[in-house]
Each structure stands twice: as C-alpha cells, then as structure tokens.
UniProtKB/TrEMBL annotation:
First and last residue of the signal peptide: none
A Pfam family the protein falls into: Chorismate_bind
Alphabetically ordered keywords of this record: Aminotransferase, Glutamine amidotransferase, Lyase, Transferase
Molecular function per GO: transaminase activity
Catalytic activity: chorismate + L-glutamine = anthranilate + pyruvate + L-glutamate + H(+)
Superkingdom field: Bacteria
Domain Glutamine amidotransferase: 460-638
Protein name, entry field: anthranilate synthase
InterPro entries: ADC_synthase, Anth_synth_I-like, Chorismate_C, Class_I_gatase-like, GATASE, TrpG/PapA_dom
Enzyme class: lyase
SUPFAM superfamilies xrefs: ADC synthase, Class I glutamine amidotransferase-like
Annotated Chorismate-utilising enzyme C-terminal domain residues: 117-376
EC number: 4.1.3.27
Organism, scientific name: Micromonospora purpureochromogenes
Length: 657
C-alpha cells in the first residue's frame, strides 16, 4: 500500500487497510505515507531505533501518562504508548492526496463538551485563586474534551477530516492522520515540541492566542493583541519553561530566536524558536522534555500536580507528542515531534474526542479562557463538520509562517501572508526582546564571561522542584564554576563545594513543617551556623529571610512572570519575578545572630528583593530567567561577595583585586 487510492479501495471492500500514517510536514508539497506494524512499549527508552539505511524508523504516539517516567503526577488512564514500526515509506503529492481523499462531509451526533462552559469557568477561577494566588506556579493549562459519535466508517471520516484540514487550515507544523488499528488520530498541530537533526536540538514555544473570523486578522486588533501585557507575559513564561528543558538536553542551553507571528485559519499565535547543540539519545531528549509548558504549565513538576487536582479525567494523547524517530545519511539519530494538540481521536466504534485547553495566568479571566478553548478547537471541529469553516486557503500556500525545517535557524516567510511581514507587526515583536537577557538571545562563546579565579571551584544547586536550576547552572558555569544540581530530597553530602545554592520552587514558605520547606530550612540553618558560602534564590530566599527573622507576606497580585526595574544593592537592575510570597522589612540594615544584613527593599511596600550578609546572599527574583536582563551581572556581583572574586563589568569580566 503506497497510495491513498489503495486505502480507499480497502475501505470500499470493508477491509482493514492495516496500520498507516499520512503526514504533511510544514511547507511540504507532499504527504509522507508510512506503513508497518503497530506495537506497544512501556517506556520511551523501549522505542526501537535500529541501525541501517537513512530514513524514518519509528512513529510513536506518546500519551500524557508517560509523564510518570519523570516521576511526575498524573491521572493514569491506561492509554498505551503505541508505535508504528515503519516498514514502508512513500511520498504522495499534495494534489494527488487531495484528489483521492474522501470529500463527503463528516456526520456526527451528540456533540458536547464533557465540562460545560460554566463549570470550566469555575475551574479557571479556582486555579487562579488556589494555585497561582498561593504560589503554586506561574501558569497552568487545564483541558476539557468535546465528545461526539461519528456516523459511518470512522476511518473514512478521519480521512475526510484530513482532507478538509489540508485545505482549510494553515500554519500547521504537521497535518496528519495516524491509524493504528486501535484508534485514529487526525489533526493539524501548530507546534513543534522538539526536534533533533545533525545534533541540533530545537524547541518551539508558542503562546498567546488572537481569535479572528476572517481570512486575514484585522491589523489594528492584531497590533493591540501583540502589545497586550497578558499575551506578552504568557509567551515569556513558556519561553522560560522551555529554556529550562533546553538547559537539560543541549550542552550550553538554548539560544532564543524570534519572536515571530504564526497565522492560522481561525487564530494567530506568537512564537519563539530555541536551538542548541546536544548529543543525547533522542529517546532521552523526548523523556527530558515531557511535556511542553504550553500544554501543562510551570514549574513543570507542580503543574502536573495541579492538573491532576483540577482535571477529573486522564488526558489520553492530548498534550503528548507524535514522535518520528530515524537516522540520517551519516547514521546519526533524528527526531521530529509535534505536540498532540488540535487533534481528534476516533475509536473503531466511532467515539470521537477533541481535547483542548487554555493557559491560565495571573491576568486571565474566566470568560476569556472559555472563549480560548472554543477558538483553539475551531479548526479541527470545522474539519469534522462541528464548527463553521474558515475562509478557504490555497493549500499550496498553507505554509507555516514561523520557523521552517527542523534544522533551520532562519524563518521562512510567505510573502502572500502580509501581516507577518508588516513592518509595524515586526517592530512590535522585535521590541519584546529589548529588555530580555542577552545571555539567552546571543550565541554564547565558551570562556568569554568566565571570571578570574573561579576555575576549579565547585557549586551545588539544590533544586526545590523548579528546573530553573538548570538555567542557573549554565549561568554559573559560564562564570567559571563547576556546577552540580541535586533535588532537595537528596541534597547531601555538601562536602567539597565552595558554594551551595538553595534554589527556587513552588509552595508556601510559611508552611515550615511541610517536608520540602523543613528540609531546605534545615540546610540553610546549618550553612548559616557554619558560615559557609550560600546563595538562596526565590523560594530559597524566602526561607532564608524567615530564618533571619523577617516576616513573609503573600501578595494580593502575584508576581508570576513579572519583569521589573529594582534597586539591587544600590544599582538599578532589570529582573524577572516568579513569586507570590515576599519578605518584608522596614529598614535597609538588619542585625541578626549571623551578623549584619544589608537589604534591598521596594520603597513602596518594603518587599525585600535581595539581601546579603557575611557569607550568604539571597535574591527574590530569578537572575537566570530570560526576563532578567541583568541577571548575569547580578550573579557575578554575588559571587564576588560570597567568594571574594571579580565582578562582571558592562564590557565583560574584570578583576577587582
């Protein structure tokens, strides 16, 4: 079977054509037809990737429940990790596929969301108040599912929906149908999760949703959207979260490229591209990046707990990935994995599911997030006959107008999609980078930011369940330290380290009997008592402030994903906050049992942004965040205080003697 005609001929005979996948990747003038045998695996590491000729080897359907491989919480619905062991691969011209795929409309009955609009709105309010409002994280994605029953052949309905997506949707990274014999997945995913090609690892955070009904968005309304602080901050937050993942899978972390505008049939998004060199097995890359913050939240581990608390059912394949694994001509591993969103699942009995979620941030409104779920589902629902179709687009121009190709750094732009090229649109997008950290925006040359005297010195970062610690490790490493990262549960032993960093994490620092808070407080108390160099970041800073006798306060308006100019030990700095709690003080100096402490306070409310004393320091913000334009310089100053070493000037490292 190497043509869509063969599929249709089998269906006309009421025969099962066997497992297959039809995939159109971004900008391609053809579809790839993959055939083979479907098997199941328990773990991502069990996916086969044999040696041999170049080409695709395995197409895996990775369900959300695989997040348990990382030790994260989920509602386990038993959805299997299925994969197609590819035996046949043939290209099909787009025009030929469109001519052969069924044109009859899809007919369904009983369509309804499993969570009604009013109930979903109530959930949004609870998450804003009980999770973001209490310091559990910066943003969370909560999903709901439209359910219906397909009339007639489910596979024929899926192929008809694929045809309509190829014609009617634009801007998709992958447009696809996968049939395993047990299920059909058909969709048009806008978002690359992760790819690996020639050793280049790439991720593609997309966030911010502009809803429109026309073939082209209204320019004035789009510009208002692009300037909306909620939408800007939402993209920054997922950018930071995917930089955390890149810190794990790329040798020097990720370089930020963009932002760009992505236009689709019913909506538009904003996006960045992240790129970095790595050498990990692609299955390990998949495991370490489960799953995108754009469909889960941040920080990731606690986002999974929040999802489990507020969603009343498992996610099945929603927010997982469709992963194509293979080898290139030199035998190197390749990976291309779109996120499973804007995707319908159809069972052999005709049961239809279309899951969709909205990203909840501190600026969210219940009505706005309800509307966002409808807009995100619109493309797939239109292909299934459950929503109005968008104005027709020429399939030959249905090119993703963000970043094209798994190994390209420069974006491909379609000149017939003018808003992406509009000078003011491009200027507004480019302006988003003016206050971001150059450390993450520019290609980093090892050694150029190294501080004299730090070679051979070691630092341990204790992770409080926020993998910002991976980014912090890259920055401290760029300054010259050799860095290890350990989870708070296994922080010991601390011998042999010149510096211990008690890192960020979610939770209420006032809950001092909670295991994590108790363990981190005890670690900090021991370090203070011994006078050993210690840096505390965000949650660590709050716990340090508590040990120093400062009161802690929960902000009415959380500082989640907020960028501010603040005074840090006499110098104005641009930094990024991810916090709900803060320490308070009414003076700039404090006498403690551990010696005098200097405080950097907000003059308006007394919030303590930073503190330092003999052998210790704390910062409430995240110097490692892409929001912290001056983060590297702040860390250099802190190291100078804690380790009596040089500070970073505006022009690079300089020895202070």
């Amino acid at each position: 079977m190497n043509r869509p005609h063969d599929l249709l001929a089998a269906l006309a005979r009421d025969a099962d054509p066997g497992p297959f996948a039809l995939v159109r990747r971004e900008g391609a003038a053809h579809l790839d037809l993959f055939t083979g045998t479907v098997r199941t695996a328990d773990r991502l590491a069990d996916l086969p990737l044999p040696d041999g000729a170049a080409g695709p080897r395995t197409l895996a359907l990775v369900p959300y429940r695989q997040i348990a491989e990382r030790g994260f919480e989920c509602v386990d619905d038993g959805t299997p990790l299925e994969y197609l062991e590819i035996a046949g691969h043939a290209p099909i011209a787009l025009a030929d596929a469109l001519a052969a795929l069924p044109q009859a409309p899809v007919v369904t009955t009983g369509a309804a969301f499993d969570v009604a609009d009013e109930e979903y709105a109530d959930t949004v309010q609870r998450v804003l108040a009980e999770e973001i409002g209490r310091g559990e994280g910066a943003n969370f994605v909560i999903h709901r599912t439209l359910r219906a029953t397909v009339q007639g052949s489910p596979l024929r309905a899926g192929l008809a929906a694929l045809r309509r997506l190829l014609l009617g949707e634009r801007g998709a990274y992958w447009t696809f149908l996968v049939y395993t014999g047990h299920r059909i997945l058909v969709g048009a995913s806008p978002e690359r999760h992760v790819s690996v090609d020639d050793g280049l690892v790439m991720m593609n955070p997309i966030s911010g949703t502009f809803r429109h009904a026309g073939a082209t968005p209204d320019r004035a309304a789009l510009l208002r959207f692009l300037r909306d602080p909620k939408e800007v901050e939402e993209l920054y937050m997922v950018l930071d979260e995917e930089l955390k993942m890149m810190a794990t899978v790329a040798e020097h972390g990720g370089q930020v490229i963009g932002p760009y505008l992505k236009e689709m049939a019913h909506l538009a998004h904003t996006e960045y591209l992240l790129a970095g060199r790595g050498s990990k097995d692609v299955r390990e890359v998949l495991r370490e990046t489960m799953f995108a913050p754009t469909v889960t939240g941040s920080p990731m581990e606690n986002a999974c707990r929040v999802i489990a608390r507020h969603e009343r059912s498992g996610r099945r394949y929603y927010s997982g990935v469709l992963a194509l694994l293979g080898r290139d001509g030199a035998g190197r591993q390749t990976l291309d994995a779109p996120i499973l969103i804007r995707t319908a699942e159809i069972s052999p009995a005709g049961e239809l599911r279309v899951p969709v979620g909205a990203t909840l941030v501190r600026h969210s409104t219940a009505a706005g997030e309800v509307a966002e779920t409808h807009a995100k589902a619109a493309g797939v629902l239109a292909a299934l006959g459950l929503a109005p179709e968008a104005p027709a687009a020429d399939p030959a121009r249905a090119v993703r107008n963000g970043c094209s190709g798994s190994a390209r750094l420069a974006p491909h732009r379609d000149p017939e999609q003018p808003l992406a090229e509009d000078p003011e649109v491009r200027a507004v997008l480019a302006a988003r980078n003016t206050s971001l950290a150059r450390f993450w925006l520019e290609e980093r040359v090892p050694g150029t930011t190294r501080l004299a005297g730090l070679t051979g010195r070691r630092a341990l970062i204790v992770d409080g369940e926020d993998t910002f610690t991976g980014m912090l490790a890259h920055q401290l490493g760029a300054l010259g330290l050799a860095v290890d990262v350990r989870p708070w549960q296994r922080a010991a032993p601390l011998d042999g380290y010149d510096l211990v960093v008690v890192g960020p994490g979610p939770g209420d620092p006032g809950a001092i009997t909670e295991p994590k808070m108790a363990a981190l407080r005890a670690l900090l108390a021991d370090r203070l008592a011994a006078g050993l160099p210690t840096l505390a970041v965000c949650l660590g800073h709050q716990l340090l402030a508590g040990l120093l006798g400062l009161p802690l306060h929960r902000r009415e308006a959380p500082y989640q994903g907020l960028q501010r100019d603040v005074r840090v030990f006499g110098t104005s700095r641009r930094v990024g906050f991810y916090s709900t709690f803060t320490a308070l003080a009414d003076r700039d100096r404090l006498g403690t049992r551990y010696g005098p402490v200097e405080l950097s306070r907000d003059p308006a409310d007394g919030a303590v942004h930073a503190l330092r004393g003999p052998g210790f320091a704390g910062v409430q913000f995240h110097p490692e965040s892409v929001l912290s334009r001056d983060g590297l310089a702040i860390l250099a100053d802190v190291l100078g205080h804690l380790l009596a070493r040089p500070a970073l000037t505006a022009h690079g490292p300089a020895d202070r003697g």
